[in-house]
Specification:
It is a single chain. A hairpin with a 2-residue loop joins strand 2 and strand 3. The protein is elongated, with a radius of gyration of 30 Å. Helix 1 packs across helix 5. The strands form five sheets. It has a 23-stranded parallel β-sheet that branches. Strands 5-4-1-6-10-7-11 form a seven-stranded mixed β-sheet. It starts with 13 loop residues before the first strand and ends with a helix. The protein contains ten helices and 37 strands. With 468 residues, it is α/β, with parallel strands linked by helices. It has three domains: 223 residues, Spore Coat Polysaccharide Biosynthesis Protein SpsA, Chain A, CATH 3.90.550.10; 71 residues, UDP N-Acetylglucosamine Acyltransferase, domain 1, CATH 2.160.10; 88 residues, Hexapeptide repeat proteins (UDP N-Acetylglucosamine Acyltransferase, domain 1), CATH 2.160.10.10. It binds uridine-diphosphate-N-acetylglucosamine (UD1) and calcium ion. The site of calcium ion has 4 residues, from loops.
C-alpha cells in the first residue's frame, strides 16, 4: 500500500498511536483537551487524519480524562487503550502494549494536541526510520523559542538524549532543536525498554523521551530527524494557543485550496475545515464557513455570509447569505439570500430556493422554484413545480410528522397551507390562499378558501353612518 507521499510498506507492519489521555488543565474546560476543535475539527480527529494521510490505518488512541467522550467521537475507526492515571507519556504508551506488541513491527507515536502535525511530516519520519533500520526515530524542529519543549541533545552531531525543559540546565535550555513528540519505534524494542523508564525527574513522570537514550545505551540505533516546517509542533495547552493554532491551520487550508484553483476572496474571514473538498473555479466570498466532510463542485459561488456544514454541492451552484446543513444540492442550484436548508434537504439540478425559505427532510426537483417565504418539511416535490410565496407544509400535528407529496409541474398558489399527509397530483393547481386537507388529483384545480363576496356601494353607506 502506498501513501500519498509515495511511501511503500506493508500496512500490517506499521501501526499508529495517539496519546490523548491528558487533562489539559490550562484549558479550564469540562471537555477533554483533545476534543477542543481547531478549524471545526476535534484535535484528536486531526491527529487521526494525519496518520491516515501517512498511510497508517491501524490506530490506537490512549485515553483517560474524558475518555468516554473521546471514544464517542472516534467510534470504531480506532481501538482504545485506557490510562486511568496520567503518569507520563512513557506510561501512556505502556498502556497500549496489549494493542500493539505482536501486532505490528513498527509504531508511530504522536501527541493528540498538536493540530498542525501533517501527514507529510509523519511520512517523512517513517520513511527515514524504515530505511535506516533504527530502533527509534524522532522528528525534531529548529525553533527560535524552544521554551516548553524537550531539547534534543547531540554529541558529535549524533543524537544523545532528550531533556525536558523542567530538567534542563541553562546550556541545554539554550538549545534550539526540540522534540516534536512524533516518533517511530521498533515495537518490540520499544516495549522492552519502556519498563526500564523511571520517574526520577522534575515532574515525577515516566517520560517516553527516556526510551530513546535507553535504546542508545543498548547499542541500538536512534535517529533524530530535523523537519523544516516548525509549525507542525505547535502544541495547544490553553484557549489562546487553540485560537493561534486555528488561525495557522486555517491559513494553510485556504492556501492549499487557492493553489488548487479556488478563489478565496478574503482569507481573513473565510473558515474552511481541513476535510472539505472544493472544485476549481469556485469562488468563496467573505464571511463563509464550510465545515465537516463537505464537498463543493467546480464553478460554484459560495457566500458572502454563508454557513455550509456536512453537505454536498454540485457544479455551478450559487449559495449566498444562507445556512445549509446535512444537505445535498445538485448542479446549477440557486439558494439565497436568507435561506435555511436543514438536514435531509435534497435539491435537484436547477432548483431555486429564495429568501426566507426553509427546507427540511425534503426532496425537491429538478427545476423546482420556491422563491419566497415558505416552509417545505417532510415533503417530496416533483420536477418543474412552482411553490408560491408563503406556502407552508403543515407536517406536524403536535405528536407526529406527516409527509406532503407534490407531483411534477404543479402550481401551488401563494399563501397555501398544505395539511399533511396530503398529495398533489402531477400538473395540478392550487388556488392562492388555499388550505388543502384532501388529496388533489393530477391536472385538477383545488380551491380551499371562502368564496369572495362583493357588496357594491357598501363603503359609501358605512362612511355616511359616521358623518356628523
Ligand atoms: C512532550 C514531550 C516533549 C515534546 C512535546 C512536544 C515528554 C516527556 N515530553 O511534552 O519532549 O517537546 O511533547 O509536544 O514526552 N499524555 C497522556 N498521558 C500522560 C501524559 C501525556 O496521554 O500521562 C498525552 C497528552 O494528552 C498529550 C501528549 O501525551 O496529548 C503529550 O503530553 P504533554 O503532557 O502535553 O507533554 P509535553 O509536556 O507537551
Ligand atoms: Ca503538549
Amino acid at each position: 500500500m502506498a501513501s500519498q507521499y509515495g511511501l511503500t510498506f506493508n500496512m500490517s507492519t506499521v501501526a499508529g498511536l495517539i496519546l490523548a489521555a491528558g487533562k489539559g488543565t490550562r484549558m479550564k474546560s469540562e471537555l477533554p483537551k483533545v476534543l477542543h476543535e481547531v478549524c471545526g475539527t476535534p484535535m484528536v480527529s486531526l491527529a487521526l487524519e494525519a496518520l491516515k494521510e501517512a498511510g497508517l490505518s491501524h490506530v490506537t488512541v490512549v485515553i483517560g480524562h474524558g475518555g468516554d467522550k473521546v471514544q464517542e467521537e472516534l467510534g470504531d475507526a480506532v481501538s482504545f487503550a485506557w490510562q486511568h492515571e496520567q503518569k507520563g507519556t512513557g506510561h501512556a504508551v505502556r498502556m497500549a502494549q496489549e494493542a500493539l506488541l505482536g501486532h505490528c513491527d513498527h509504531v508511530v507515536v504522536i501527541p493528540g494536541d498538536t493540530p498542525l502535525l501533517s501527514g507529510e511530516a509523519i511520512s517523512q519520519l517513517l520513511q527515514a526510520h524504515l530505511a535506516s533500520g533504527a530502533a527509534a526515530s524522532v522528528l525534531t524542529c529548529e525553533v527560535a523559542e524552544p521554551k516548553g519543549y524537550g531539547r534534543i541533545v547531540r554529541e558529535g552531531g549524533a543524537f544523545a538524549r532528550i531533556v525536558e525543559e523542567k530538567d534542563a540546565s541553562p546550556e541545554v535550555k539554550a538549545l534550539k532543536e526540540v522534540n516534536s513528540g512524533v516518533y517511530a519505534f521498533h515495537t518490540a524494542k520499544l516495549f522492552a525498554a519502556l519498563p526500564r523508564v523511571g520517574a526520577a525527574n522534575a515532574q515525577g513522570e515516566e517520560y517516553l523521551t527516556d526510551v530513546l537514550a535507553l535504546l542508545l545505551q543498548d547499542g541500538d540505533r536512534v535517529e533524530a530527524l530535523p523537519f523544516d516546517d516548525a509549525d507542525i509542533l505547535m502544541g495547544v495547552n490553553d484557549r489562546w494557543s487553540l485560537a493561534e493554532a486555528d488561525a495557522l491551520l486555517r491559513r494553510k487550508i485556504l492556501r492549499r485550496l487557492a493553489d488548487s484553483g479556488v478563489t478565496i476572496v478574503d482569507p481573513n474571514s473565510t473558515y474552511i475545515s481541513p476535510q472539505v473538498k472544493i472544485g476549481p473555479d469556485t469562488i468563496i466570498e467573505p464571511q463563509t464557513y464550510i465545515t465537516g466532510q463537505s464537498v463543493i463542485g467546480r464553478n460554484c459561488h459560495i457566500g458572502p455570509s454563508t454557513r455550509i456544514k456536512r453537505s454536498v454541492i454540485g457544479d455551478g451552484t450559487y449559495v449566498y447569505f444562507s445556512h445549509v446543513a446535512d444537505a445535498e444540492l445538485g448542479d446549477g442550484v440557486k439558494v439565497g439570500p436568507f435561506a435555511h436548508l436543514r438536514p435531509g434537504s435534497q435539491l435537484g439540478a436547477g432548483t431555486k430556493i429564495g429568501n426566507f425559505v426553509e427546507v427540511k427532510n425534503a426532496q425537491l426537483g429538478p427545476k423546482v422554484s420556491a422563491n419566497h417565504l415558505s416552509y417545505i418539511g417532510d415533503a417530496t416535490v416533483g420536477a418543474g413545480t412552482n411553490i408560491g410565496a408563503g406556502t407552508i407544509t403543515c407536517n406536524y400535528d403536535g405528536f407526529q410528522k406527516h409527509r406532503t407529496t407534490i407531483g411534477e409541474n404543479v402550481f401551488v398558489g401563494s399563501n397555501s397551507t398544505l395539511v399533511a399527509p396530503v398529495e398533489l397530483g402531477n400538473g395540478s393547481f392550487v388556488a392562492a390562499g388555499s388550505v388543502i386537507t384532501k388529496n388533489v388529483q393530477g391536472d385538477a384545480l383545488a380551491f380551499g378558501r371562502a368564496r369572495q363576496e362583493v357588496k357594491e356601494g357598501w363603503a359609501v353607506q358605512w362612511r355616511a353612518k359616521f358623518k356628523k
